[in-house]
C-alpha cells in the first residue's frame, strides 16, 4: 500500500513528523506495511524552526499512491498553486484517499474536496475555516473525521489519532495497537462516537488495579460488579464512587466495554458464530451481545464483522468515524 506525504508551501515540523512516524517508519515486525514517499511539487527546500532546513525530492507528478497525506498548508493562502491543485484533484478524482492534519484541511477546502462533507481543523482556525468554506459541515470539538476516502484531523497531536484510525482500518486492531504502543500512546483516546479501536486502560490506584486485572481474567456472564467490589474489599457504593472518579464511567459500563473488546476481536479474527462469540466474550447470549453492540457502537455484530474482518487482498473500509473528546462511550 503506497503512501505519499505532500509538503506544500511551508514546513510544519510536528505534523510532518507525525506522518513520518505513522506511515514511513520501517516496521519489520509486520508482514505487510506501507511504502511511503515524502515529496514536494513546488520547491525542494523548506525552512524549519531554529534555523533548520528540510530538503525533500521535488516531483512534477504525484507518484501512484493509495493514500495522500497533507501534513499542513498555510492558512493565509487563499489561491492554491495551479500545479498543486491539479495534481491533488487528479488523485482525488481517481478515487484516491486523502487525509489532512491540522491546517492541511485548508488545502482540501480550497479545492472543494470537503464540500458537503464533515471536516475539522485546529480550533485556532475554526472561525476562518467556517467563513471561507460554508459548504463544509464543520464538526465542533472533534479530534478527527474520516469517511473512508477523505479525512481531517484537528490540531497537532490529533494527527496521530487519525493516523492510527487509518492503520486500524487498513490492517486491523493488532497493527494499530502495536503502533500506538511504540509511540507510547493509547491506541484510542477516551471519548467519541463509534469506538473502533481497542482502548488500553489507564492504570488506577493499586486496589482498583488488582481488581481490574482479576476481572479481565474472569469475563463471563456470571461476573458482576458486586463481585468486583468484593474483590476490591469495598462496599458496592464505595467501589462505584472510586471507579467513577478514576475512569469517569461506571463499573458496569466498563465491564460491558471490556466484553465488547473481546467480541470485536473475535469478530475480526475468527469465523465463530455470533452465539459462540457472545459466550466467549462473557455475555449471556447473542441477544445480549447484539443489544450492547447497538447501545455502545450503534452497529450490529454482523455489520461490524462485514466492515472490519480482514480478508485477503482487500482493504477494510468504514463508515464515517467522528472522534470527539469528552464524550463517554
From TrEMBL:
InterPro entries recorded: Class_I_gatase-like, DJ-1/PfpI, Homeodomain-like_sf, HTH_AraC, HTH_AraC-typ_CS, INH-QAR
Domain HTH araC/xylS-type: 209-307
Pfam family, one: DJ-1_PfpI
Entries under Gene3D superfamilies matching the protein: 3.40.50.880, Homeodomain-like (1.10.10.60)
Keyword DNA-binding listed: yes
SMART domains: HTH_ARAC
Alphabetized SUPFAM superfamilies for the sequence: Class I glutamine amidotransferase-like (SSF52317), Homeodomain-like (SSF46689)
Annotated keywords: DNA-binding, Transcription, Transcription regulation
Top-level taxon in the UniProt lineage: Bacteria
The protein's name in its UniProt record: Helix-turn-helix domain-containing protein
Organism: Alteromonas gilva
